[in-house]
Design brief:
alpha/beta, Rossmann fold, six-stranded parallel β-sheet
Length: about 200
């Protein structure tokens, strides 16, 4: 009788192990086949605007390119006094004189890897891009991307900014820039078309 019980228990144990093993195989998740990631191909217009002029120009470019937009908003807003260039120690003047100044930005760009091209729109401050633009480009890995600088300005051209951005945007292609606000929409479109973005 004892032998029969041992045999019965052994058989039962084998059945349970087999059943559990079979069940585990049936319920295990199917292997995922990884699809190749779609390469980044979107265009973004990222702009910094204190008075609204640059925003207007940036929106025109975004419309022409059918691009998404991102506003570069300072963590500490600029007041009219901060932008009064007649005051030697106004905030904008102090930042522009300090090549290491990096004003903080309020929010981060989500998923920057989805953009192949980033158009950077900004006003010219003391002959160059505002330091907050430097903060923006140094906050992301821009390698392999195309960066297109555009500016608004009362008189200064964009070349100094283009040179600075070529230094800061490691591994990216920085195109020649364009000063907006003094050219027609047709001229802006022709220039953008010539870049073959």
């Amino acid at each position: 009788m004892k032998k029969l019980s041992i045999i019965f228990l052994s058989a039962l144990t084998m059945i349970l192990f087999t059943a559990c093993g079979g069940s585990a195989e049936k319920t295990s998740a199917p292997e995922k086949t990884s699809e190749p990631e779609k390469p980044a191909d979107k265009i973004l217009v990222a702009y910094f605007s204190c008075t609204g002029h640059t925003k207007t120009a940036a929106m025109e470019v975004a419309e022409l390119l059918k691009a998404e937009t991102f506003e570069i908003v300072p963590a500490q807003a600029y007041t009219p006094a901060d932008l009064d260039y007649n005051i030697e120690d106004c905030r904008a003047n102090l930042e522009q004189k300090d090549s290491a100044a990096r004003p903080a930005i309020k929010s981060k760009l989500e998923n920057p890897s989805q953009y192949k091209t980033i158009v950077l729109a900004f006003p010219i401050w003391w002959g160059a891009e505002p330091r907050i633009i430097d903060t923006f480009v140094e906050s992301y890995d821009l390698a392999g991307k195309t960066i297109v600088p555009v500016c608004t300005s009362g008189g200064s051209d964009i070349q100094a900014s283009v040179n600075n951005l070529r230094e800061l945007c490691k591994g990216a292609t920085v195109t020649g820039g364009k000063r907006l606000g003094i050219t027609s929409k047709d001229d802006v479109k022709a220039w953008l078309d010539s870049l073959k973005l």
